[in-house]
Amino acid sequence: MKDKRTYTKSKEHGEDMSHENEVKIEPGALPWLIEEHKKEIWKYQQKESEHIKTQNELENAKQIINQLSSEIVKLKKQIK
Q: What is the pLDDT of residues 24-36, one digit of tens each?
């Protein structure tokens, strides 16, 4: 049996790939597929929201650290 990845012409490769990538969806499965995609999108949006929240908290913490650091430097200068 010939290995289907061994091609003698580049045209054969393109034709073979087009047949491999065809997906047949049954008409009754489409609503289910749409609902599954909606669920995946919702999960992604929740993760993205959590990421943005964490990023904002990090930025706020960095600002506070910078402010406190500059305040410490000022206080040390006053002491000397």
A: 777 788 888 899 9
In the chain, what is the straight-line distance between the N-terminal and C-terminal CA atoms, in Å?
87
Please answer whether residues 16 and 4 qualify as being in contact, where contact means their C-beta atoms are separated by less than 8 angstroms.
Answer: yes
Q: Using CA atoms, how far apart are residues 41 and 43, in angstroms rounded to an integer?
A: 5
How do the domains of the chain map onto residue ranges? Answer: 45-80
Residue type for 67, please? Q
| The amino acid at 44 | Y
- Higher-pLDDT residue of 24 and 67 is 67
Measure the CA–CA gap between 10 and 22, rounded to whole angstroms.
19
Percent of the chain whose pLDDT exceeds 90: 55
SS3 of 22-51: the string is: CCCCCHHHHHHHHHHHHHHHHHHHHHHHHH
